[in-house]
Fold this sequence. Notes:
The chain contains 13 helices and two strands. By secondary structure, the chain is mainly alpha-helical. The protein has three domains: 3-280, Rhopdopsin 7-helix transmembrane proteins (Up-down Bundle), CATH 1.20.1070; 281-351; 353-403, no CATH class. β1 and β2 (169-171) form a beta hairpin.
Amino acid sequence: MKDxxxxxxxxxxxxxxxxxxxxxxxxxxxxxxxxxxxSYILFSVDFLAVAFIGALVAARQPANPIGxxxxxxxxxxxxxxxxxxxxVYGLYTRPGSLPGSLWAAWASGWLWVIVIGSFLTFVxxxxxxxxxxxxxxxxLGWLTGAFLASAACVLALRPQxxxxxxxxxxxxxxxxxxxxxxxxxVDGPGAAxxxxxxxxxxxxxxxxxxxxxxEERQQIKWFGLAIGLMVAYFQTVTLLELTGLPNVGSSVxxxxxxxxxxxxxxxxxxIAILKHxxxxxxxxxxxxxxxxxxxxxxxxxxxxxxxxxxxxxxxLTASGSNSVAVAASTLIVAAVFxxxxxxxxxxxxxxFYRRKYDASKTLETFSTKLRDEVDLxxxxxxxxxxxxxxxxxxxxSLWLRQG
Length: 403
C-alpha cells in the first residue's frame, strides 16, 4: 500500500472509531438509568487515544503491522461499545424502537473476547518491530489465535447474551443449549488459559529486550511497564472473580483502574516515540502535544474571560449582553497565543528533546559570543568546542584559509 493511501485509510478508520464512540456516548446518556455512563466516558477516552497512536503509526509506517493492529482492535472495540448501547436502548430503554437490537447484542456479546485477547497477546508479541522475536514464537501466535477463535464461536452460540448493563441477559437468537457448559468453561478455566498466553507474550518482551540493544531496549522498557500494568489488572480481576467476587471489574474502583491501565499503553508508546524516535513520527507527536495543550489552555482562558468579564460587565451596566466579554476574551486569547505556544513548545522540547534543546541553547550562546569576540584564536577554540558539543563527532579539526 502506498504511503498516501495508507494514511487515508488509517485516518478514515480513526474517524470511524471516533464516530462509533460518540454514538456509544449518546446511548450511554440515553440508557443512564440502566448503565454506568462513567465507564463509557473513561473507556472512550482510552480507545480514542489508542486508535490515534495506531493511526499515526499506520500512516507513517504502513509496512509495520503494529499500527494496523492497534487501529483494528480499537475499531472492533468501538463496535462492541456502540452495539451494546444500541442493544440496551432498543431492548430495554425503549423496547422495539430500534431494528436489529437483538443482533447488536449478539455481536457485542462475543467480539470483546477477540479484542482483549489480541490486545494482551499479539500487541506485546509484535512490539516494536512488527515481527516476532524469533520463529519459535509462532506457536504462541497460532495457539492464541486458535483459542480466541474457539472462545468467540462458543460465546456466539451460547444460549444467553450478557450485556454491559443492569438488565441481566437476553436470549441468543442462534443460541444452542449445549454451548452453555462450554461458555462457563470459557469464563473460568478458559480465562486462566488466556492469562497464560498473555504472560507468555510478556516473556517474549523480556527475550526481545535481552536480544536488543540501544534505543529498542528503551522502547521496550516503557511499553513493557505499561503492558505489565494492563496484564496485572486483568489477571487480578480474573482471580478475584474466580474466587467468588463477581462484578469486580464493573465497580467504580475497577473501572478507574481499568481506565488507567489501558491509558498507560498509548502513553508509553507516545513516550517511546518522543524520547527514542520510535516509528519516525516524533515530530507529529510533538506538534500534537503542543497544539493540543495550547487549544485546551486557550479554551480555558476564553471561557474564564467570558464568564469573568461578563459578570463584571453585567454588574456595572445591569445588561445581559455578553458582546463586550466575548470581544475582550477574543483579544486576550489572541494576545497570549504566541507566548503560550512558545512556553509550551519549550517545555515539550526540554522534556522530550533535551539534546536538541541543549544544542539550540548552545548555538544561541555561541552566536552571542561571536558578536563580541575579536580574538581569532579564542574564536577558533570556541567554534571547535561548540561543534563537539552539538554534533558530538569523534574528531574535530578546523582549517582556516589565509589569503
